[in-house]
Design a protein that fits this description.
With 167 residues, the chain is of the alpha+beta class. It has helices spanning 16-29, 41-48, 98-112, 128-136, and strands at 7-10, 55-61, 64-73, 82-89, 117-124, 140-151, 155-165.
Length: 167
């Protein structure tokens, strides 16, 4: 299925039962996130559902949650002028374009919020699809921490720090 325009809206606690299954599957696969495996739904909820001034959104198609993103300041205090975000898309939804729609939403949110840029702190270098998507949205790899991620097939691989200047 090709999705031209998924609906993106703020996530609520009522969305969590649809988010958690793909969140847990992605974490368990171990290819893109360094979250600990085996977290309970309540523990994962605490990590994903971003409190203000950040926010969490969902991408919906036909009433089904097929992706989610969380966003907010990268650091508190003197780092709060730079945003950060994380994304998860349900591979079982068979959709395309959801990650791009979420990425475009985050960029627009950060611009509207007056952020000077967006920093992704840990993009797994073997996640070529994500790296390609972020580059297409204007992000640059500004550094790579060698061997910082223990990939289940490739062993230690690098984590990219990616940045989009909004100035």
């Amino acid at each position: 299925m090709t999705i031209a325009d998924p609906s993106i809206r703020p996530a609520t606690d009522d969305d969590w039962p649809q988010i958690f299954p793909f969140w847990a599957r992605i974490v368990t696969e171990g290819r893109t996130y360094a979250y600990p495996e085996g977290l309970t739904s309540a523990q994962a909820h605490g990590l994903w559902m971003e409190p203000a001034p950040g926010r969490t959104v969902v991408a919906e198609v036909g009433g089904r949650v097929v992706g989610s993103a969380k966003m907010g300041p990268n650091r508190p205090g003197r780092g709060a002028h730079i945003a950060t975000a994380s994304f998860m898309v349900d591979a079982e939804a068979g959709t395309r374009g959801v990650g791009r729609a979420l990425g475009e939403h985050v960029v627009a949110w950060a611009r509207e919020g007056g952020y000077a840029g967006i920093q992704f702190n840990a993009v797994v270098e073997t996640n070529e699809r994500a790296v390609r998507l972020w580059r297409s949205l204007g992000f640059e790899v500004i550094g790579t921490v060698p061997g910082a991620f223990d990939h289940p097939e490739h062993g230690p691989v690098g984590l990219h720090v990616m940045f989009l200047d909004l100035g």
